[in-house]
Structure of Formamidopyrimidine-DNA glycosylase:
Amino acid sequence: MPELPEVQGFVNAIKKSYVGLTLKNIKFHREDLRYPFQVKELKQIFAPGNRLLQCYREGKQLVLETNHGSVSISLGMSGAFKPILSIDVEKHQHVSVFFENGEGFAYVDPRRFGFWKIKDKIAAAQKVCDPLQESELLELFLSPLIREKNTSIKDILMDQKLIGGIGNIYAVEALYIAKIHPLKNCAEISVKQWKSLARAIPEILQLAIEMGGSSISSYRTLNGDKGSFQHVHRVYGRTGLKCLQKNCSGTIERIVQKGRSSWFCSECQSNSK
C-alpha cells in the first residue's frame, strides 16, 4: 500500500512534468473505484483550456488543482500514475488526463481501493500533523492529548486524524530507530523517547522519498522504476534476523496489532524499557 514517501514521489514527478500545462481532456474508463466518480464535476475541473496549477500531498492523498477546482486522490492499496505513451488503454487504467502539448498521465489501480473526490474546502481547513516536520511532531507528542492517552504508540502513529501519512512500514522503522516497542503505552513513554521519535520519523520518511519509496509488491514510480528503500529496511519483514543496532544481540520479532504486522528488536526495543 503506498504510504507518504510513495505518494510524495508521485507528487514530485507530476510537479516536474505536468504542472503548468494546459489541459485537453480527461477520460474515465469505468464508473467507479472505491466510490463512483463525480464525472460531471471532475470534467469541469479538468475541462479543455484549464491549467494544472498545483500538485501536492495531504497525508497519504495526492491533490491536483486546476483553475476550476481541486481533487483529492487516494491510491488505496495499489493505485499509481503512469505516463500515457499511446492511445491504447492498458489493463487497470481507469483515468486518463491529456494535455494540449500531447503529453498525459494515467491513473492505474488493479485492486480499485483508491478514489478521486472533489476537494472539500471545509475538510481542507482541518489540518493534521505533518510527519515531515519534527517540530510539529514534538508539539503533538508532548501534548496531554497524547502523553496521557491509554493506547499503544503505534496506534497513534497510524492514526491519520492525528498524523497525516505514516503507514505500517514507516511506523515500525521509526519506532526501531527510537528504540520504542510498538505496544508501549503512550503514558509510559519518556520525554527523551518522544524527542527521539520526533527526530526519527522525518529522517526515515525523507530518506525513503529520496530512495523512491518501498517497492514491496506492485509499487512503481511514475517512470516505472522500483523504489529502493526496501533494501534498507531495518525491521520490516526481517523476522528472526539479527538486530542491526550496534552492540545489540537481539533478534527481530513479529507480532500482530489490530490486524497489521509489527516488527521490533527483542532487546533494544524491550517493552519494559
